[in-house]
Design goal:
The chain is α+β, with helices and mostly antiparallel strands. It is built from 11 helices and 7 strands. The strands form 2 sheets. The protein has a 5-stranded mixed β-sheet. The protein has a two-stranded antiparallel sheet with strand order 1-2. A hairpin with a 7-residue loop joins strand 1 and strand 2.
Length: 233
């Protein structure tokens, strides 16, 4: 299979877009940045993509050496997709792209987010000043996935897996946690509604969810402001 479209430029940036610029390609990478997934798991994280398009994107990314396919050892014996070592280098780029996108004056915060999108947003919006000298460990339970989050020396390290002796276990869905951490939803209200369950220290869980700050939005364009005034007038 050949990559369908190309900018036909010697610029490395344009070549990068040749590789990951097709619709859905970078979101497939997003879904794999925290570890391997089966095809069905990728579909769950990208519910709007069709099976045929997902198959095509995976084939293209594999051809580009960004993704590889392998079979898990018994007893699982399932086939999974994972990023190559070079593909994993897109992780920090995705985080910075997310931070840039979060400053958009037209970004809608009401749309759903996937599990891996939430974890990337935590990595991108972690406020080390707010964390101070905090040293703590948390386990996030999001559906069938578990994430081990460690905070120490003003840094957040988070990856798939169970946490060893966490200060708190937080169980919820990605939309609710995003609303608490980034939109001001009160943790106590979410607990009362049954949308969040806490094991261990509730205070530790509340502290964790207070450590994320969205960047200031960029100024809207003058054209957008003019259009809005015309609509209101």
């Amino acid at each position: 299979m050949a990559i369908k479209r190309s900018y036909n430029e010697g610029c490395a940036s344009s070549h990068a877009l040749d590789l990951i610029g097709e619709r859905w390609a970078l979101l497939v990478v997003r879904e794999l940045v925290h570890g391997p997934k089966r095809f069905t798991d990728l579909r769950a994280g990208l519910p709007a993509i069709s099976p045929n398009v997902l198959t095509q994107r995976l084939d293209e990314l594999e051809l580009a050496a960004v993704v590889r396919r392998r079979q898990l050892p018994p007893p699982a014996a399932a086939w999974v997709y994972e990023l190559t070592e070079w593909g994993y280098e897109l992780g920090p780029i995705l985080i910075e792209l997310g931070r840039w996108g979060a400053r958009s004056p037209t970004w809608s915060r009401e749309l759903p987010v996937s599990i891996d999108s939430l974890i990337l947003s935590f990595r991108g919006t972690f406020d080390k000043e707010a964390a101070g000298d905090l040293k703590a460990r948390y386990e996030l339970r999001l559906g069938a996935y578990r994430f081990d989050a460690k905070i120490a020396a003003g840094q957040l390290k988070i990856g798939r897996g169970n946490a060893d002796q966490p200060d708190a276990i937080i169980e919820s869905d990605p939309d609710t946690l995003a609303a608490i951490a980034l939109e001001g939803l009160k943790l106590d209200d979410a607990i009362r509604a049954g949308d969040v369950k806490i094991e261990g220290s509730k205070a530790a869980a509340k502290r964790f969810l207070s450590l994320f700050t969205l960047p200031e939005p960029a100024a809207p364009s003058e054209r957008a402001g003019t259009s809005l005034n015309a609509a209101n007038g």
